[in-house]
Amino acid sequence: MCAGYHPRMAEGRLVYSTDGGDRRREKVAPNPEPRLPDDGIVRIFREKGGRGGRTVTVVRGLPDGDLGLIASEVKRRCGSGGAVTAGAVEIQGDHRDRTAELLAQKGYRVKLAGG
Can you give the pTM of this predicted structure? Predict the structure, then answer.
């Protein structure tokens, strides 16, 4: 092994900086939430990443006061479980079409986004 080599360097992340010193112990955020434009459109995503291969429908862009009510209504309509997490509604399974239909009936501007 070469002098100065560290196995974490192969992972492509900074391990030492002349400004801050040793950076190996710093926490790295897993995957930050995607930034959505504040244009009043509710976006419905299908995601699998970080969920053991299971598909989840994620609704982002709803007003904070509506999250709980919309989550329970969508879960009931889809016959599936789900939760409200970090300003988004997550529904187990791929229910983008049913969710979009329900939100459009309620007067939201809806857009299917992502995979």
Answer: 0.67
CB 90 within 8 A of CB 82: yes
Structure tokens at 45: 């995503």
Give me the pLDDT at residue 46, please. Answer: 93
The greatest distance separating any two alpha carbons of the chain, rounded to the nearest whole angstrom, comes to: 65
pLDDT score, position 83: 93
H helix or E strand, kind and range, residue 65 = none
Contact 23, 15 (CB under 8 A): yes
**Do 83 and 58 meet the contact criterion of CB atoms below 8 Å apart?**
no
> 41-112 has which fold?
Translation Initiation Factor Eif1 (3.30.780)
What is the spatial distance between Cα 59 and Cα 79, in angstroms, rounded to a whole number? 16
